[in-house]
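To the wet lab folks,

You asked to see what we're planning to order before we commit. Fair enough. Below is the target structure as tokens, and below that is the sequence we designed to fit it. If anything looks off to you, flag it before the synthesis order goes out.
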């Protein structure tokens, strides 16, 4: 239903990424070449076995995961937070073109389907955004991605489980340590009964330092979740 509305509202006469003219709609927001390029990140990757960050050379784990084991058991992404993957996030988040989230969610679901270590899964939970961002943007991009990921995986989504309780100043200017400090107690679990004993798939748009999903994972585990896995649209590079 929502897709129908998206298709009514937005003219899709060009690829959302390379602007090649053609007929595009919510299920196919970009051209075949761009879609293939977005998916090719999966094939040529050398990634951290645990958090999924792209690595320059071999080695099973990135320096971050070697230093401290993350609380989630696996995190993966569709591609690196660069070029087209980055543009897609910006289209969704800042241009508020929610319809691109349909295909993005499908591609994230594919990553989960392709990795047996994700399974079993019971529930999909999106990372919440601040009330301030919610007011400004009108929607949570991670919830959009989580919704379409869960729909494709035939899993339930529980969007009210996590809440961001503390306003955080722009994360970008902070150092890694400051970010972690800043995120402490930034998330609470509101409906613990929904996650108790469950295998949770946590969904966010981008994995950079991982501190956001790590804090959310800790909250979910404290609330009684059995285990937490993470999938994001894009991820950073590690070493
Ligand atoms: Zn294109
Ligand atoms: Zn790692």
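Sequence we intend to order:
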């Amino acid at each position: 239903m929502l897709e129908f509305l998206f298709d009514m509202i937005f003219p899709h006469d060009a690829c959302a990424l390379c602007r090649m003219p053609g007929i595009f709609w919510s299920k196919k927001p970009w051209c075949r070449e761009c879609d293939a390029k977005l998916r090719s990140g999966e094939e040529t990757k050398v990634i951290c076995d645990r958090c999924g960050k792209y690595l320059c050379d071999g080695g099973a784990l990135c320096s971050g995961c070697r230093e401290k084991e993350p609380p989630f058991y696996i995190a993966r992404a569709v591609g690196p937070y660069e070029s087209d993957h980055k543009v897609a996030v910006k289209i969704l988040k800042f241009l508020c073109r929610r319809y691109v989230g349909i295909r993005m969610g499908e591609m994230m679901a594919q990553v989960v389907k392709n990795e047996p270590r994700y399974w079993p899964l019971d529930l999909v939970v999106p990372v919440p955004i601040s009330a301030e961002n919610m007011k400004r943007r009108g929607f949570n991009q991670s919830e959009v991605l989580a919704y379409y990921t869960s729909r494709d995986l035939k899993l339930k989504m529980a969007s009210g489980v996590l809440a961001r309780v503390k306003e955080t100043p722009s994360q970008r200017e902070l150092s890694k340590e400051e970010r972690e400090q800043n995120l402490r107690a930034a998330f609470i679990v509101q409906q613990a009964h929904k996650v108790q004993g469950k295998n949770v798939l946590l969904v966010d748009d981008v994995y950079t330092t991982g501190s956001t999903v790590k804090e959310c994972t800790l909250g979910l585990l404290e609330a009684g979740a059995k285990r937490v896995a993470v999938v994001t649209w894009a991820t950073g590079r590690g070493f």
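Structural context that might help your review: The domain at 2-238 is CATH 3.40.50.2020 (Rossmann fold). The longest helix spans residues 100-114.

Thanks,
Computational group
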